[in-house]
Write a structure and sequence with these properties.
Rossmann fold; 14 strands; alpha/beta; six-stranded mixed beta sheet; 2 domains
Length: 386
């Protein structure tokens, strides 16, 4: 069993400060398992909106939900947007007798009624797959290769893990995404998602993608926003300010789970990954997501100039600026690009993050550090609550 106690405690804290918590993230990442454990601990009430019996029980939701006390869990809540106005009324009761945990696999802007009906009443909490601090640093390469989806990571062997991911990729668009009713065909979304793997870690050129797919620029952008809202891809915006330099102003595109990226690229195991041209980009996306999982309130950016200087990840935390470069090499060296980033962005520190390197300085500002050491150093993330 993987210990997800930190995540459970974080949700419990959110439930103490807000009448409702929305636990959002991709399907198959363990949200239901975690919620049912919480229900067991608190003797809570669980309604699975994919279960016809539970859906029928909520045909008169105000009457049913209004009578409950304690914790009430609504699983796959995006499938019943008609519940949101009722929830608003229940959450606005004085000293509400019930707290609600809403589980969903789409972000609020994709679920009609969430932002309008529940604004200011719900604490949002994002849940991805397994994180490195949950599985342990000895499992770093396995987590990187297979990704964080529990059934992929915990599969008995690499072939079964790969087959699970291929099945997930085939069924996600049609069975999990189409019911949101967002007006796109599974075929067009599936083709675009497959293309994102080849653009992973690159500057997004929606016009070029559109020409490859036979779609318009606006259609590609809208479909990417939908995949982003379903927690499948990350559209990383550029950081720019008046620095007197010509800066890149288009975003970068990433597939958020490395296991799904490898499934889309046909990379079946770690051996195939180590010899693949996307090795560096795969590490960049994986390490970045591990860092951002520790910083759920941070606004991430990348930085790049027309002259070729670039910083993979830029964060402003409490007024201090931090930079991150991601390198697969065991002994990275100082580069002109790093020096430019430190000077132009006035970085507090720049970390060159590798899978397993020992920690050592390149300059007073730039340090090489392994991902496990970085994640274990709480001083680097003073705004994080575990």
């Amino acid at each position: 069993m993987i210990d997800r106690q930190n995540l459970l405690l974080s949700i419990q804290r959110d439930l103490q400060r807000a009448p409702a918590v929305a636990l959002l993230g991709p399907r198959q990442t363990g949200k239901t398992t975690l919620a049912r454990e919480l229900a067991r601990l608190t003797q809570g009430h669980v309604f699975d909106l994919e279960d016809p019996a539970d859906a029928a029980a909520l045909e008169n939701p105000k009457l049913v939900l209004g009578a409950l006390r304690g914790l009430v869990i609504l699983d796959e809540v995006q499938r019943a947007p008609q519940l949101f106005p009722v929830l608003r009324v229940l959450l606005d009761r004085p000293d509400p007798p019930a707290r609600f945990l809403l589980l969903g696999s789409a972000s609020p802007h994709l679920v009609r009624g969430v932002t309008e009906s529940l604004a200011g009443r719900v604490a949002f909490h994002e849940m991805q797959g397994f994180q490195l601090r949950e599985v342990g640093e000895d499992a770093l390469r396995l987590l990187w290769s297979r990704g964080g989806f529990p059934r992929s990571f915990l599969a008995p062997d690499d072939p079964q893990s790969f087959l699970w991911r291929k099945d997930f990729l085939r069924t996600f668009i049609e069975k999990d995404f189409a019911p949101l009713g967002l007006g796109s065909t599974p075929k067009s979304l599936g083709r675009l998602w497959a293309m994102t793997a080849h653009y992973h870690g690159q500057i997004l050129n929606a016009s070029e993608l559109g020409r490859s797919l036979g779609e318009t620029n606006k259609t590609v952008q809208r479909h990417l926003e939908m995949l982003s809202g379903a927690f499948m891809v990350r559209i990383l915006p550029p950081w720019f300010e008046n620095l007197g330099k010509r800066l890149i102003r288009s975003p970068k595109l990433f597939v958020r789970d490395p296991g799904l990226l490898h499934g889309l690229l046909g990379i079946a195991d770690e051996g195939a990954l180590l010899g693949h041209p996307k090795l560096g980009a795969s590490w960049e996306g994986f390490a970045m997501e591990q860092i951002l999982a520790r910083l759920p309130q941070a606004d991430p950016y990348f930085w790049a100039t027309q002259g070729g200087a670039e910083l993979d990840l830029f964060l402003d935390l409490g007024g201090k600026r931090w930079g991150f470069e991601f390198k697969v090499a065991d002994a990275p060296r100082m580069t002109r690009s790093m020096a430019s980033a430190c000077a132009d962005l006035n970085l507090e520190r720049l970390y060159v993050v590798t899978p397993e390197s020992r920690r050592y300085p390149l300059t007073e500002t730039v340090q090489v550090v392994s991902l496990p050491d970085l994640l274990a150093d709480a001083d680097l993330f003073p705004t994080v609550t575990s």
